[in-house]
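Worked example

This section walks through a single chain of length 239. The input is the sequence exactly as stored; nothing has been trimmed or padded.
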Amino acid sequence: MHRHPTVPPSPPSAGPPAPPRTAASLAAALAACSVLLLTLVAARWHPLLTLDGDISRTTHRWAVRDRGTTHAIRVLSDWVWDPLTMRLVCAAAVVWLVWRRAAWWTALWLAVTCAVAAIVQQSVKAAVDRPRPVWPDPVDSAHYAAFPSGHAMTATVVCGLLLWLLHRRRPGRALWRTAVAVALVSVAGVGMTRVWLGVHWPSDVCGGWLLGALLVALAVTVYEWPRDRRPEPPGRRHR
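Given that input, the structure is written out below as tokens.
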């Protein structure tokens, strides 16, 4: 009787090691860029201050001249992309994760990351204590120190985290492209509005983007690394 050769069973998968390593490598690169920019801002590096001043003076002239556009940008900056609006979007995502998915760990991770971002933002502002632009004819006003831009940093953190969570659910191509487009427009748009309104230097916005992206990369690293040791929420276990 002919016997078929026995094929040994495949070893169980240990989980994808690439995402934690990729996120950690990205976090290291973003940390280096963030530290470099923060150092240049704190040291008041003259070429950076000159570039900031040239761009800000140009955009301020445009903002004063085109009041209609400036009003529309104020609505976007103060209401649509305001940090409070972004945090409410994050809070809605937390509620959805708990209510519809019973994903308690993911919801806690999302809420804590957004809270840490707010603390880091205010701490860096207090430490650097950079003055905001001052104009004889301002079109808007803002409080606290300038670096980093809280609007840019908060939008980067919230959009980055939500995009990553959506990507893990393997959305359809149309949904994914729409989400990426909305996130990119929001993150880039809110940064440009802060410079147009004359309440931030361009390097403040770049600092907000860098620090926000750094926190997203660190959060993804934290989420993914203990993945094989973390208990799955009820209803999500393999059967």
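What to look for: The chain is about 70% helix and 0% strand.
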